[in-house]
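Continuing the series of single-chain predictions for the mutant panel. This is the parent chain; the variants come on the following pages.
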Amino acid sequence: MPRSDRSPLLLAGLLAAAGTAHFTAPRRFDPIVPRSLPGSPRAWTYASGAAELALAAAVALPRTRKAAALATAAFFVGVFPANVKMAVDWRHRPAPQRTAAWGRLPVQLPLVLWARGVARGAERAS
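Parent structure:
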C-alpha cells in the first residue's frame, strides 16, 4: 500500500486511539478543559472523545474522507486552547511533564497540516 494510501488510515487510527483514551482515562483530560466552557469538564472530555471517534470513522471511509479530514483540521485547531491550558497549568511540574506539555503545542500545526493533506488527497482521488 503506498504511503499516501496509508496516511488517512494512520490519521483515523490516531483519532480513534485519542478518542478511546478520553473514555478509558477521562481523569487525564478533565483538568485541561478550559474553565470558561459551560458544564462539567467530564462532559467536555466525553464529547471531545466522541468527536474524535466519529472523525476517525469518517476519515477512514473514502466517501466521507475529505469533509472529515477538513473537520479534523478544525478540531485540532479547536482543542489547541486545552493544550495551552495544560502547558500553563503544568509549568511547576517536574521537567519531563513540563516538557511534554509544552512539546504538545507545536505538534498541533503538523496535525492540522496532515489532516488538510488527507483532505487534498481525497479530493484528488475522487
